[in-house]
């Protein structure tokens, strides 16, 4: 293997990585009231991790996309600055005899995630293992789902966690990946068999059964998630990702429309039948109806957005706690975006949104350039999964849609989320690398 | 093929990003100014926590409440628990009550009493200037009244009948509000203890407690009937002497007299009937007056609706008092004659606040004009010291009153109430309300006792309403209502307390004058 210089990536990483220690220092000045940079170990550790990832890609001659790592690195950096700024006892770990605060724990997970990303980006030479064992992946996904329902425990009303001794994991994050792999493999295969077969029932043209049945099955699973696990965000994410992949595979807007109508209908039924769905919906419609009770979190988040204004209150100067209590409960997971928008303002929020957009549109570019249907659909699935997840939680923060308890990839605190997000980026890089190699081969032949 | 669809997907995603960006602009730019001023915004709460609050002084310039900002937290100290139920508390955890609530904006300086200066401050975005308040209450009288109540649950309300200025308003048991202010974390425990206390120390009995009035209501019944011309001071009821012993049958229900203590029934006119507190006589008066007229007079006197201790717009709430069944918009019609007759002597469905009954006493003392009560005398610039500043920004004065009965009717009731305290027949019942027993030699008091029969094992409540000085042409300077819960077991507790407090006030006023 040959060393490949990745100049664009390096050029973009330098300013981004300089900003992370700078952000730590600014935060420390604001919080301590002294003109000292404070402890920069975590910031420098993060810089080392990202630089290490870049060098590893260079060393292994990786030809994949050069904008993804800078985008992800910037998101993770902003997230780490924010997590370091919040009270460190919100989360953390005491595993392996160490007592680590929230930011340090997050950094640890960044390390694990980046290693996983590199292994996949460099090591996945052949996508056969993904494509050919698609039913195995599906089985693993369903198995994980069932395990969550049986062994899971609830945090904040949603049953998302499984306790594995030293660590707790959110299987939803892993299910998301195997789901995308399965759907990509399924659609890539079906797509070649069926070209334009349609089923007509009277005037109504419904998708051919090979599309329609999985859609119904997935809808059923998704509704099960909403009702049994009370996890609206994951349900929305799964179904949204599936519909997007279906659209890209078939090019038919009507299928998406049918899917959305089905989803709306099922949601309405769930609303009528289940109290917790109803409650969540009503909080969304008018959180100010009960600002100290059910609407507390969304109302406090809206206030934080307002406080931020256009230019923000400045790093370390947001109103994170009041009399020893968080002004927004779960600020480090559900409302990390709001906390950033408070301190960095609308401009900072737009910048973060732009980073998500860079990730999404580079991901779509990888999909468009992919060597085959499976690679393309897989890239679409991974990209939209990451993008939709970010959009769902940000839109939930701004009350555009009901609030859900999913994480903002690379930014929110959470080991499972960080690991899963890096695995997805690793897969994207692997696809990108393969198509780059292919283009070279065509050019040289 | 896929590439084309991916491009179309990209277009939809751009739309979504735009939508989310729009929602950010909505909250961070368009709605931000509105969000910034909402009371439950943590920024507003945080600002309030460190906001300096003006002091509160009594009528003689004694410090009652003051604040200090330490470590960004404004802590309030209350010097006298006897004032807790009127001043209230300013707690970051439990909100603000009493005068603290009614005058919130002035105390923290969000508003200037002068509208022009207020506008200017707003335009120039000046820092808020805390203001101090002076009450109409004299701390010496307030403390004295609280001492008189001692360990009993009850209330004393004393008013200047000519102005409506509150001279004392005491509710017992009371509590120290200082631990409820300041750090919200440490306020929970004392509040829990207060909430769980069966003696209900959080209840401002003087204006929020409602009690059966018993015989003090007869002063009102007499006033209404005299004003309506239904009776004169010499009206008698021929069947009354016989009914004193046999009972008065109204619609099949027999109204019985209370224990007259050996007094032989006779043909009593108003003065004697009030002295012995004849239920039979006042049942007749009530029935002659009629239900509609009775309710009409009750409403004129301020019964049947929530009222306020001013100044207007910045008032302490007073719970509504009722003479009949409470309905949405006040007192419902009397269900039958028995209920009307019972209301006329203060039983039936009557339930009144001590404040309301002090106003009844004040109306009689004021020759038929019922004053509008108020409790804050002026607003001043903030004084750092323990004595008020000399710069008065706004002064609240008497807003006159409303005439509720004619002068002659008021005079006739007054004369009967003087007899009730001082007369031969009245002494055994209300004689303890005589101020000459408490060191006053040159004046007389007027009054009426009440014993609220509650039924069952519960000891009746003891009441007294009255005023002084009440002899001849003297102008009364204090009107009072005293309630002692379960205070009528042996001899009435309320009358001597009222006598003591009225005497104390006359002494204090004489000192000021001399």
List keywords for this structure.
heterodimer, A: 445 residues, three-stranded antiparallel sheet, B: 514 residues, alpha+beta, five-stranded antiparallel sheet, 20 helices, 18% strand
Inertia-based shape of chain A: globular
**Approximately how much beta-strand content do the residues of chain B carry?**
15-25%
Q: Describe the biggest sheet of chain B?
A: 6 strands, mixed
Percent of residues in helices of chain A: 55-70%
Placed side by side, the strands forming the largest sheet of chain A appear as 1-2-3
Could you characterize the architecture of this molecule?
The complex is a heterodimer of chains A (445) and B (514). With 445 residues, chain A is mostly helical. Chain A has one domain. Helix content of chain A is 68%, strand content 5%. Chain A has helices at 7-32, 41-59, 68-85, 102-123, 128-131, 134-151, 171-193, 209-229, 232-250, 253-273, 275-285, 296-308, 336-368, 373-397, 415-444; strands spanning 153-155, 158-164, 167-169, 199-201, 204-206, 321-322, 325-326. Chain A is globular and about 70 Å long. With 514 residues, chain B is α+β, with helices and mostly antiparallel strands. Chain B has 20 helices and 21 strands. Chain B starts with a helix and ends with a helix. The chains are: A mainly alpha (445), B alpha+beta (514). The interface between A and B is large, with 50 and 40 residues.
